[in-house]
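Show me any protein, fold above all:
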Amino acid sequence: MLTMICRHCQKENPESVKYCIHCGKPLDEPERQTPPVFDPNKEEELNDDWSKQVEEEKTEAPKPSKKNSHVPVLIVLGVLVGLLVIGGVGYFMYSNHQHQQEIARLEQEKEQEKEARKKAEEEADDLQDENEYLEDRNDRLEDRQKDENESEDHYQYGFEIDTWYKANYNMALRNAGDYNATQTGHLRKDERIFIEEIISGSNGSYWGRSSSGDWVCMQDNDYDYLREE
């Protein structure tokens, strides 16, 4: 028997009525339903169709949910932040390395300047000592010249004779007033020697004869070898 379902109260009504016998509302656009008829021969086909439908639903690729749609954006942002951090760290390390090199360079320049200043001071001290020595020598020469002018008999070549001298260095005694003369002995530093005669030799040298007859260089263009006691 065919029936009609009321679209208002969802209850069955006979096909012949135009109004629902339950709620009284008109049965517009009737929906006909035919009671299912059980067929044992088709049960297996229905089961197969249902199994196939279930398998197709399982194999369908799941649609991306809106919940995970922001994951790629977050990954990209994370990568960008990581690159910025790495770049910042690298720049900091490079800047620090450059700063350390600059400090080392300045320290090296400071040391070089210090050494150069120390060397210049040492050279200035040596020059001052040399100038003082030359001034003292010139003063003594002037004094000798003055004394020689006053008493020619007591001086020879600006040196006083018949007087005691002391050696400024360890020196050789020779048998004549010349560098190439035969060595006869030694005169130790600060040892006394009595000079009786003075002659002029090569290289601006002056030689003194001692009371024992040995000759010793008293002065040349570079050094004073004897000093008056």
The first helix runs from residue 43 to 59. The first strand starts at residue 3 and ends at 5. The radius of gyration is 65 Å.
